[in-house]
Amino acid sequence: MKKCKITVLKTTLDKELAEEYGAEGLTACPMLKEGQVFYADYAKPEGFCDEAWKAIYQYVFALSHGAEKDVFYYGDWIRKPGVAICSCNDGLRPVIFKIEATEEESQIDYVPVR
Question: What element of type H or E holds 55?
């Protein structure tokens, strides 16, 4: 299993939807910042948003287990092998991520319980 590099590409705020549905003073995600980089494999990186992890985990898992050799969705989504562009599930202020396969081997840092 390899590690994946997760880069925060963009934090957004849909002003129209936020005006209609959002809490007073809602801003773009305060937890993640554009340009932040995280490395992950089987576990959520420290400091990474729980909800964002739930939304992107399957792409991290696929890339860390060898999907970098293929193009996601048969070439009709991403043209570069080993890369996924996806976002968290916040409908008012989604954060956009780039996930890239790396050559760095993962190190499991726990003992499985049986």
Answer: helix 50-64
Radius of gyration of the chain (CA): 16
75-88 tens-digit pLDDT: 677 778 888 999 99
3-state secondary structure of 108: coil
CA–CA dist 107, 18 (Å, integer): 41
Tokens of 107: 């190190």
Where do we find the tokens 């009709």? 76
3-state secondary structure 8-51: EEEECCCHHHHHHHCCCCCCCCCCCCCCCEEEECCCCCCCCCHH
> Residue written as tokens 């409908």?
91
Cα separation, 4 vs 22, in Å, equals 33
How far, in Å, CA of 94 to CA of 77, rounded? 19
Please say whether the beta carbons of 26 and 93 come within 8 A. Answer: yes
pTM (2 d.p.):
0.87
Rounded to an integer, the average pLDDT of 91-98 is 97
